[in-house]
Design goal:
Shape: globular
CATH topology of the largest domain: Rossmann fold
Helix content: 40-55%
Oligomer: single chain
CATH class of the largest domain: Alpha Beta
Strand order of the largest sheet: 2-1-3-4-5-6-7
Structural class: alpha/beta
Strand content: 15-25%
Number of helices: 11
Number of domains: 2
CATH superfamily of the largest domain: NAD(P)-binding Rossmann-like Domain
Order of helices and strands: EHEHHEHEHEHEHEHHHH
Distance between the termini: 43 Å
Radius of gyration: 21 Å
Length: 279
Amino acid sequence: MTHKTKVTLVGAGGKMGVRLSNNLNKHPDYETSYLEVSAEGLERMKAIGIQVSNPEDSIPNADIVIYAVPDIAIGKVTASYVPKMKAGSIGMFLDPAAPLAGHLAQRDDISYFASHPCHPSVFNWEPDQKAHYDYFGGIAARQSIVCALIHGPKEHYGVGEKIAKVIYGPVTKSIEVTIEQMGILEPALSETFCGALITVLKEGADAAIAKGVPKEAVFEFLMGHVNIELALLFEQLPGGKFSDAAIKAIAIGKEKIFKDNWRDIFEPESVKEQIKAIT
């Protein structure tokens, strides 16, 4: 009989947790227990046919405890459950917020591991319709992930990476980073920086519509230009480049839109401030 790794998924019915629950449910390598407390989460679990477990039994017996809970609640949840984890087990986190915010109990006898999905790339080609519209990932679309062993023996990196590929699957590439580098990726790059840019992109579209440009024309024109400009900038079109006129227009836009110190977002103290705000 093949030994199964015992997993406890905390927050199994959350928006993120339910995706993980689906991918772990009946997986041949894992025996999973599911924890959830919110009414909405319990309803999601019921809908996919998963029963709630008892934390008093599942936490101390787990080889891996996955904390799929909101950043704002991670400190309280880990304070309750981490002390009950068995020696030699792994506490797994889905982003770097809790570790970098100092919310993890200091225990030398357990490991801490973090992994986060990159989400399906805009450059993915998915022939299947279900995969094409899986924008978040973890259902049918291919995506990459980043992983970090925060604390613990080196062999636990492989253990964490293996289950990360399951919960975020299908995974095409797994990239090892440090937990500090993961903090630069999220929230600094993906949310604080990119999220702000894309929000302003939508506001720009709204501004064009307010000037009388048909909404359909704005959407089609903008989405097409986003596509080609991303391809040019991120070297998806070998030898491709912006026209001289476009380069001049970009320079005007950057001067009007950005502050000179925008790169400070990526400095360690700024990253810490961002994490403190979201946790």
